[in-house]
């Protein structure tokens, strides 16, 4: 029995939308999902439809809508104790974080997706697709080894329920691995992987495999074209495989870059350069370094070796930036583990559920008071900020309490994202948040305030609460300085509140 068979309503519509998405036709799947959401009342049905709608928006590259879609899907899934739904939602959320260039959040969702899918008791075709989507997320975020492991899991689960292996061929995973090697200077390694992809395609064609997904066509086509651009002939016709493939941003960009490679292979580097200049491509499909690397190959073919060298250095620098981000994430992970160990050693400080705000997951006023009291007992001092939402009353009045809750959750996420390691964020009351910066002085508080302002202003509030502007008013003070207590510091900070601009002075 399929996972979808347990749903109380709209099963056939959801199956049809799923088949369309698997065949690269997300634009057609989206209105079906919207119709289901307009009539469905069953919570599990709605949660599944919201998760699939989130995935469709990712496929279509509608980045401005992702944050709201993810929040709504996440809230719906939270109410359903189902491991598959959690895994699928987190796999999509990792892809969404990648499109928004938030590596830290993406890695968090990868871990959560893997744990949830591993906990699924009865595997079926939906679980196989969940592993497939997790493999895609691993691959896009640069974890190629984990991606290959996840796609093998998808094949095994799929085979157990009768799905053909070519359905989960996923050539894009190895393609991204290949170009990543080339960006780091290992062109021989890149060519070895591209040859393997070509051999796999030849094998599938020879056995008459007829279950290959349309979305695989562009990846196979680009692999062939990229190999040709590096000077190797291929048996298959790259141009033929670059046709079709669906309506995703990924397919569109691979097709365009594939034709750039074919122009290079045909000895037309000038045309290839013009094509690179004429159509921008997403940096998230093959990495920001890929257009620069193709530009280097073009210049080399045209005999302009100085320009080729400069483009190669730029491509390498872009690739190195990605590696640096991964290293930073590793350091943050170690720091988080140490924080968790400290929490376990002091359960009285964090262990009581009454110390957490249930809506945002942030510490509440009670935990804030305990945290500052412990800090003052040690003789420490800190900068303390009070942040109020401007426009929140209008949100509740115009859009209702549910939208107000979503705004509070979004602000909580913004504050958590911009804090330094070791800073403390709490929901104090209503729409009021308090941040504590241990050991910080005026300069550090002003910088954090600037980051809070920039991150708040960068959020697309019009999608979440159209027609209702949202901003923050922030005020700063110090606690522990000259014997100042928490209540005195909060009062001073509240008196200093100014709308959405960093403060250069604390009192």
How is this structure best summarized?
This protein has 507 residues and is an alpha+beta fold. It is built from 23 helices and five strands.
The count of strands amounts to 5
CA-based shape = globular
Q: What is the terminal separation in angstroms?
A: 65 Å
Instruction: Count helical runs.
Output: 23
Average predicted confidence as pLDDT = 85
Helix/sheet category: alpha+beta
Could you give the order of the helices and strands? Answer: HHHHHHHHHHHHHHHHHHEHHEEHHEHE
Strand content: 5-15%
- Residue share in helices? 55-70%
Show the helix and strand layout.
Blueprint: H1 11-22, H2 26-39, H3 43-60, H4 66-78, H5 83-99, H6 103-118, H7 125-140, H8 144-160, H9 171-183, H10 187-206, H11 214-229, H12 238-241, H13 249-265, H14 269-278, H15 289-301, H16 305-345, H17 347-350, H18 365-377, E1 382-390, H19 392-399, H20 401-418, E2 424-429, E3 432-438, H21 442-458, H22 461-464, E4 471-479, H23 486-495, E5 498-499
Antiparallel strand pairs: 1-3, 1-4, 2-3, 4-5
Helix pairs in contact: 1-2, 1-3, 2-3, 3-4, 3-5, 4-5, 5-6, 5-7, 6-7, 7-8, 7-9, 9-10, 10-11, 11-13, 13-14, 13-15, 14-15, 15-16, 19-20, 20-21
Organism: Paractinoplanes lichenicola
Protein name: GGDEF domain-containing protein
Pfam families: GGDEF
